[in-house]
Amino acid sequence: MDYQKILNTINDELSYRDVTGKVASYIPELAKVDPRKFGMHVYCGDRQHFSFGDSEELFSIQSISKVFSLSMAMRLMGEDLWDRVDVEPSGDPFNSLSQLEYESGVPRNPFINAGALVISDILVDQLENPKQELLDFVRKITQDNSINFDPKIATSERSTGYRNVALVNYMKALGNIKCEVEPIVDFYFHLCSLAMSCKQLAQAFMIFANKGRILGTNEEILTPTTVKRINSLMQTCGFYDEAGEFSFEVGLPGKSGVGGGIVAIHPDQYSVAVWSPILNEKGNSELGMKALERLTTLTGLSVF
Q1: pLDDT band at 241 (very low <50, low <70, confident <90, very high)
Q2: Averaged confidence pLDDT in the chain
Q3: Dist. CA 196–CA 115, nearest whole Å
Q4: 125: which of 11, 19, 155, 295 is 20 to 30 A away, CA to CA?
């Protein structure tokens, strides 16, 4: 498979001029990102790299990071985790409060904000230094010690994060939060502020394409069963209330973030990350979704 030729075709076919969405503005720092940015990186099971555009520029990965925190929580709790958070698609916006009332404070899945905040509560409760241990985990699976938080993004998240504070308080009132609110939201805002490039994301997500093992060292970070669960959740819940559309168009497990990034994996084949900050009305990268649809069409490879 000539992945570089396929990526070159995608780069030639697609442009930010062809999409009609907008850069996220509800987090002030994200509103400053250049909407013309566009990059893509494929990391294959034989350790080859293929890319185009702004694939090595750092950006705020936002909700993509929820896959990392979920992985850490599953290592700590195993199947007991599902007593605290469900595994169903939400069908509602990612920051919805309404479902919590009907479902006794148990979020629909770990990728909507309420679910990721429960995961944050677990990590804050069980880890000595959760922010540092998150960085250590991401650096280890990426094999890149340069990865860090973006302090400007974390501060910007905090300045507008009242709804997330409300979600934690409401779930605490309903008995599904153990820790105090402040350390939970502090961890969550830092989680969402992780700055990574398409290349780094593709390297990090290779463990989900490689049965939980780091490509190259073969060290097992996650069990195959854990990876199966996480990939299933990415397939059904990784794109907020547009997960069905992503499965229909692209046919890969993946996760998006409002920073304009999308990561997807093809088990045993590759991991791929794409970045374009212009979002559609559902909060997913408009150009990124088109690029990944072209990737699976041109390669003829999807999980279906």
Answers
A1: confident
A2: 94
A3: 23
A4: 155
